[in-house]
Amino acid sequence: MAQVQHTASKTPIRTIRPRFFSRIPVNAKIAWGLAVVCFVIVLSICAPWLSPYDPNANDLANALQKPGAAHWFGTDNFGRDIFTRMLYAGRVDLQIGVIAVIVPFLTGTLIGLLSGYFGGWFNTVMMRLVDVVISFPFMVLIIAIISILGPGLMNMYIAIFIVGWSAYARIVRGEVLVVKQQEYILAARSIGYGHGRIMLRHILPNVISSAIVFAMSDVVLCILLGASLSFLGLGVQPPAAEWGSMISEGRNYIINAWWMATFPGLAIVVTGLGFSLLGDGLAEKIEQH
């Protein structure tokens, strides 16, 4: 009996740690996803050193050249090197994927945190606004906003922000409603911790992981959305290189110059696959914990 008491007395007291930080160890999907994403990022950053061509310089004498030693992915109808334009287009599409996600992510997370924690009239107003936004089809609402504001990259960011924050607000609010009833939150209130400390140090680390996983999938959606809008002429405007606009330019030459649309399409697939693997890997880690 004494031995049992002695052993129990040396058992360390387990402390509550934010769940997000216990989910960092990677699995195969996270590793492959990071590898693909980093590969695309490195190629885009190193574009000036990987290709000697100007992405926007016309060379009509070499228009519609097949893939070869001089032009690895061939040239388009203006004689521009497809490989070079794909590298520079990667910068634009990755920028779209990051900027179009990070601002709605931060805004939606803050609104969801405040709504779930305080409730009351603020929660009612925000959730009714969320209901209004999600009642419209996502793509239709984006196109409608851009049609009002006009085509262009900045207006596309504004349209995505107006629509995109609502998903993060709903996710975080739902998590907060559960976490704020936990005993350690009640204990923090009982010892006099302020609302700011409770929200930022005790609640947010335990609810942010679901929003981060969703953000990984949202990056893929935003890249595809940016490509789709550019394909329709509402996103990045020519002559700037962007994968969607390159596909749009190549569709008229799909039979005689298949490489114009094929290689940018493959770039979208590979990039989307990388972020999808990353998001799936993070989701699996959360389920395991």
Molecular shape: elongated
The average pLDDT value, as a whole number, equals 84
Structural class: mainly alpha
Low-pLDDT residue spans: 1-24
Q: Order of helices and strands, N to C? A: HHHHHHHHHHH
Strand residue percentage: under 5%
Terminal CA distance:
35 Å
Largest sheet: none
Number of H/I helices: 11
Helix share, percent: over 70%
Number of strands: 0
Rg computed from alpha carbons, rounded to a whole number of angstroms:
24 Å
Fold topology:
Layout: H1 2-9, H2 28-45, H3 47-50, H4 82-118, H5 120-134, H6 138-149, H7 153-179, H8 183-190, H9 195-231, H10 243-250, H11 259-288
Question: How does this structure look, described?
Answer:
By secondary structure, the protein is mainly alpha-helical. It is 71% helix and 0% strand. Helix 7 (153-179) packs antiparallel against helix 9. It is elongated. The two termini are 35 Å apart. Mean pLDDT is 84; it is low at 1-24.
Can you give me a brief rundown of this structure?
The protein is mainly α.
List keywords for this structure.
elongated, single chain, 289 residues, disordered N terminus, mainly alpha
